[in-house]
Design brief:
- By secondary structure, this protein is α+β, with helices and mostly antiparallel strands.
- The chain has four domains: 80 residues, Alpha-Beta Plaits (2-Layer Sandwich); 64 residues, 3-Layer(aba) Sandwich (MutS, DNA mismatch repair protein, domain I); 57 residues, DNA polymerase, domain 1, CATH 1.10.150; 106 residues, DNA polymerase, Y-family, little finger domain (Dna Ligase, domain 1, 2-Layer Sandwich), CATH 3.30.1490.100.
- The protein is built from 15 helices and 14 strands.
- The strands form four sheets. The chain has a five-stranded mixed β-sheet with strand order 5-6-1-7-8. Strands 9-13-11-12 form a four-stranded antiparallel β-sheet.
- Helix 4 packs antiparallel against helix 6, helix 11 crosses helix 12 and helix 13 packs antiparallel against helix 14.
- The protein is globular.
- The two termini are 48 Å apart.
Length: 365
Amino acid sequence: MVETTETGITRRIIHIDMDAFYASVEQRDAPELLGRPVAVGRGEGRGVVAAASYEARKFGVRSAMPSRTALRQCPDLVFVPPRFDVYRAVSRQIHEIFARYTDLIQPLSLDEAYLDVTGSYREHGSATDIARLIRAEIHEETGLTASAGISYNRFLAKLASDHRKPNGQFVITPAMGPEFAASLRVEQFHGIGPATRAKMNRLGIFTGADLRAIPLDVLARHFGKAAAFYASIARGVDDRPVVSDRIRKSIGTETTFESDLSTLPEARRVVQALCAKLWRQCQAQSLSGRTLVLKLKYADFQITTRTRSNPTMFVNEAAIVAQAESLLEGFFPLERAIRLIGVTLSGLSTENDEKKAQLTLFGES
């Protein structure tokens, strides 16, 4: 069975996983660490490894490993203290990129998330194209690499993201899914830990094929309520939706040019088109906002923005265009040509929210 939406469309799920995230941030910010085995954590006493670069992983260094063990395995290992404020800031950048393509984002940690892009096809292309675009934008804007798995459910998308690491992506199609799951060792299944794996092994279950050969009532005697989930994933089936607890904070659109722009009339025409597209998106979702952000990316990939907030919500396309053009004029004359322009509206609320706020203002609730 292939997971579908309520309208019968096959789901398109992407799992994005940053490559050696903490260690890669440290190598990015301290170029002398590039190419060297790096561990994030405390290297003395009873410290443990929080994250390891790929150079360190070649020596068997892994997260949660005692620092002393890591140093025995890799005497040249360089320890750096964690900077969680920096990792959180980079994570916010990455999630802002996700939000350009879908609202259905389920973060798993600072460095990985599920994205349901089923409804994004018309605007952004296939899930494969979207994953490629996201990875490219992450690299452009943060200097870091990410891997992506694309499939028709969460379970297979997460497996797929491991398949081309680092800095790659892999697709598991509906035709591939059941046999792909059957070919895996049970310890490769996310959700099956060491204790469950050992129990399965004692029952003669070593692969997905072994697991799906066991009748459900037999699995239930040994694994209780989890038996149905194990039986399903062994067949490549996972109907869990991507659950987003994120309240949308902004809506935007942008475009990258085949040839860089350098004149105000050219840029103004692009901004007008972007504002029209942005307002259509707002109308489709019954949204508006108070704050407009105009972003320019120059030919040298440097990014700059200008922001202006209003006391009231934008009420039509013309108001957005006027504000965006005013912001655009502040960038001219240019010192560098432009390769991308983006327009974003934030401080969002729905029409109903605005009416409720007005009623409350006048003493009603």
